[in-house]
């Protein structure tokens, strides 16, 4: 099952939000197993590398930012079997998704569902930004945001 | 009808705005304008006291809005702005051979005073005056009340208000 | 291990959440803890799979996250209420300011945040699928002059011009700036212009799109248009260099 690490990175390359999970697809079929559906299955050594992997892709994102006028940048980087997809908003907020495909996965790598996930995450981000108590580059600590994001993660990934 | 001049008085009777719209008028000294405004304010108040019995009698008849308190209640419930014709709480108008003077008092006690040329058809003149008051009141609430640099009851110095009053006078 | 002297790289801002604040509901990101704070637990996994409604915060039942902010229909608000609100905003700013320059700076700062937020919202409303990110100076200026202005002020700005003197200066001209429609500046306030608030909105939008600029509002009345205001946009020098490197 694919594990994912999603992070929102602010304009000063600061993390605003992070979330680790794994695909919910097929998780019901495997519910007999002891593992929790949706819990990320990154190994401990990978886990601590994840923020570094996302941040190291920022240079590539910044380059792509000025060469294409699309919001969704697609797959931009890979790191020992971990792929990195990115999305950037007009306000220069980056959405980065790292995921492993090597982990004995049978799930098809699906670009359009990742794109859809990013688009809906952007929708949530804009709503978060409408909160007068939230300002750009603050960490998003809202439990409501977290719940909605997890729901769209479950829906698309 | 020709507009000669416009006065605006605050609720204490102080002159907060004066504009001579007819350039042929003789200008008075600033002090004279203040005295004039104070006098009008006083006359307006005295006029309300002159006919207390008539006001009382009228309030018993079916025509509503003559009793000041009933009038206010009606205004609050219907939200209709009183016009110069229903404003019977004081001096409403003075008509002479040389000029006509009209007074309109807003709910908050701001008095707008128009001095105009006399018109043989009096009925039409009243309509025109109340129409002008309506426009003037709108200008006052827009360009004076929404100006952060204006403090209540102080003289109006807004250039925009001046400009709009000039445009209004040209239309009348 | 003591709780309060660990600093994790994911602690981005001066949040009031400390490392001890692990959310009990299993939802809610804590920057002091990083992804550990909102990891999937058996309980939260169960909630997600069964789509239970749950009340996480006092406002959960009526949360903005469940509302559609994407509708293209323009919701108009009353100009009078806006004017009275802005009037009080200017008064409040005026009370706190030390001078005319300071007052303008503060108004600019008020607008800045509005610009940052509106930029993302308007791009969202344009539709992320169909619209494009603006990556060129002239494109972002057209966007601000057109779509952006129309969404906020209900009409497009009157003119967009390039400065004759400097290559990094542009001007957006509005004949009747919405917020200062009813405002006359007293003579002893010099060349104060309350549209500094609108300049702040533009600056916020440009800055967050990485077009760093200084935006100032100047009154430039002409006959019959007493409120005509020029918004002077002065981009960073580096920006012009970046543009020439990228697109030439």
Automatic annotation (TrEMBL), chain A:
Instruction: Cite the Pfam families for this sequence.
Output: Sedlin_N (PF04628)
A single GO cellular-component term from the record reads: TRAPPI protein complex
Q: What is this protein called?
A: Transport protein particle 20 kDa subunit
Q: Which GO terms describe its biological process?
A: endoplasmic reticulum to Golgi vesicle-mediated transport; protein-containing complex assembly
Mark the transmembrane ranges: none
Its ancestry begins with: Eukaryota, Fungi, Dikarya, Ascomycota, Saccharomycotina
Q: Which organism is it from?
A: Suhomyces tanzawaensis NRRL Y-17324
Highest taxon of the lineage: Eukaryota
UniProtKB/TrEMBL annotation, chain B:
Known Gene3D superfamilies for this protein?
A: 3.30.450.70
Q: Which Pfam families match?
A: Sybindin
Compartments where located: Endoplasmic reticulum; Golgi apparatus, cis-Golgi network; Golgi apparatus
Q: Which UniProt keywords apply?
A: Endoplasmic reticulum, ER-Golgi transport, Golgi apparatus, Transport
Q: Name one GO biological process term.
A: chromosome organization
PANTHER family per UniProt: TRAFFICKING PROTEIN PARTICLE COMPLEX SUBUNIT, TRAFFICKING PROTEIN PARTICLE COMPLEX SUBUNIT 4
Q: What do we know about how this protein assembles, alone or with others?
A: Part of the multisubunit transport protein particle (TRAPP) complex.
Protein name in the entry:
Trafficking protein particle complex subunit
Native source species = Suhomyces tanzawaensis NRRL Y-17324
TrEMBL record, chain C:
The main place the protein resides is endoplasmic reticulum
The record describes its quaternary structure and partners as:
Part of the multisubunit TRAPP (transport protein particle) complex.
PANTHER family linked to this entry: 41-2 PROTEIN ANTIGEN-RELATED, TRAFFICKING PROTEIN PARTICLE COMPLEX SUBUNIT 5
GO CC, alphabetical? endoplasmic reticulum; TRAPPI protein complex; TRAPPII protein complex; TRAPPIII protein complex
Keyword check for Protein biosynthesis: no
**Family to which the UniProt record says this protein belongs:** Belongs to the TRAPP small subunits family. BET3 subfamily.
Q: Which UniProt keywords apply?
A: Endoplasmic reticulum, ER-Golgi transport, Golgi apparatus, Transport
Q: Name one GO biological process term.
A: endoplasmic reticulum to Golgi vesicle-mediated transport
Question: Gene3D superfamilies per the record?
Answer: Trafficking protein particle complex subunit 3 (3.30.1380.20)
Compartments reported by the entry:
Endoplasmic reticulum; Golgi apparatus, cis-Golgi network
Q: What is this protein called?
A: Trafficking protein particle complex subunit
Determine if Transport is one of this entry's keywords: yes
The organism's superkingdom is given as Eukaryota
This chain's function reads: Plays a key role in the late stages of endoplasmic reticulum to Golgi traffic.
InterPro entries in UniProt: NO_sig/Golgi_transp_ligand-bd, TRAPP-I_su5, TRAPP_component
A GO MF term? guanyl-nucleotide exchange factor activity
What is the originating organism of this protein? Suhomyces tanzawaensis NRRL Y-17324
């Amino acid at each position: 099952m694919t594990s994912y690490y999603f992070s929102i990175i602010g304009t000063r390359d600061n993390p605003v939000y992070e979330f680790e999970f794994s695909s919910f697809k097929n998780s019901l079929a495997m519910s007999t197993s002891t593992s929790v559906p949706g819990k990320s299955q990154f190994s401990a050594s990978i886990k601590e590398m994840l923020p570094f992997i996302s941040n190291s892709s920022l240079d590539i994102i910044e380059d792509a930012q000025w060469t294409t006028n699309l919001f969704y940048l697609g797959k931009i980087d890979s790191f020992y079997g971990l792929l990195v997809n990115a999305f950037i908003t007009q306000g220069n907020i980056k959405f980065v998704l790292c995921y492993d495909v090597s982990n004995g996965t049978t799930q098809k790598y699906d670009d359009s569902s990742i794109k859809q996930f990013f688009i809906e995450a952007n929708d949530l981000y804009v709503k978060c930004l409408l909160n007068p108590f939230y300002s750009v580059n603050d960490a998003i600590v809202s439990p409501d945001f977290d719940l909605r994001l997890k729901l769209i993660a479950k829906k698309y990934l | 009808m020709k507009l000669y001049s416009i006065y605006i008085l605050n609720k204490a009777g102080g002159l907060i705005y004066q504009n001579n719209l007819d350039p042929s008028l003789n200008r008075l000294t600033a002090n004279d304008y203040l005295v004039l405004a104070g006098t009008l304010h006083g006359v307006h108040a005295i006029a309300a006291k002159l006919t207390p019995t008539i006001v009382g009698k009228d309030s018993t008849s079916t025509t509503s809005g003559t009793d000041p308190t009933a009038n206010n209640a009606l205004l609050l419930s219907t939200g209709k702005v009183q016009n110069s014709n229903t404003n019977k709480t004081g001096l409403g108008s003075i008509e002479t051979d040389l000029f006509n003077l009209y007074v309109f008092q807003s709910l908050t006690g701001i008095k707008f005073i128009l001095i105009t040329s006399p018109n043989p058809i009096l009925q039409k003149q009243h309509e025109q005056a109340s129409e002008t008051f309506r426009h003037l009141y709108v200008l006052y609430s827009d360009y004076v009340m929404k100006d952060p640099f204006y403090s209540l009851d102080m003289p109006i110095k807004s250039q925009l208000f001046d400009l709009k009053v000039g445009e209004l006078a040209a239309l009348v | 291990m003591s709780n309060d002297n660990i600093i994790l790289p994911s602690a981005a801002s001066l949040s009031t959440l400390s490392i001890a604040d692990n959310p009990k509901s299993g939802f809610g990101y804590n920057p002091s803890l990083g992804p550990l704070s909102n990891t999937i637990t058996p309980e939260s996994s169960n909630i997600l799979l069964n789509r239970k409604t749950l009340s996480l915060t006092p406002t959960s039942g009526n949360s903005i996250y469940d509302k559609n902010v994407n509708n293209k229909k323009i919701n108009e608000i009353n100009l009078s209420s806006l004017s009275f609100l802005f009037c009080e905003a200017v008064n409040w700013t005026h009370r706190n300011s030390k001078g005319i320059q300071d007052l303008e700076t503060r108004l600019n700062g008020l607008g800045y945040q509005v610009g940052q937020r509106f930029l993302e919202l308007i791009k969202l409303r344009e539709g992320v699928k169909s619209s494009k990110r603006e990556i060129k100076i002239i494109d972002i200026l057209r966007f601000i002059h057109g779509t952006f202005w129309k969404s906020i002020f209900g009409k497009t700005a009157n003119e967009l011009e390039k400065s004759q003197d400097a290559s990094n200066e542009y001007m957006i001209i509005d004949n009747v700036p919405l917020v200062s429609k009813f405002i006359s500046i007293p003579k002893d306030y010099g060349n104060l212009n309350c549209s500094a608030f609108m300049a702040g909105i533009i600056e916020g939008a440009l800055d967050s799109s990485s077009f760093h600029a200084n935006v100032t509002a100047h009154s430039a009345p002409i006959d019959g248009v007493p409120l005509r205001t020029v918004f002077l946009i002065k981009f960073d020098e580096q920006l012009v260099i970046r543009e020439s490197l990228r697109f030439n």
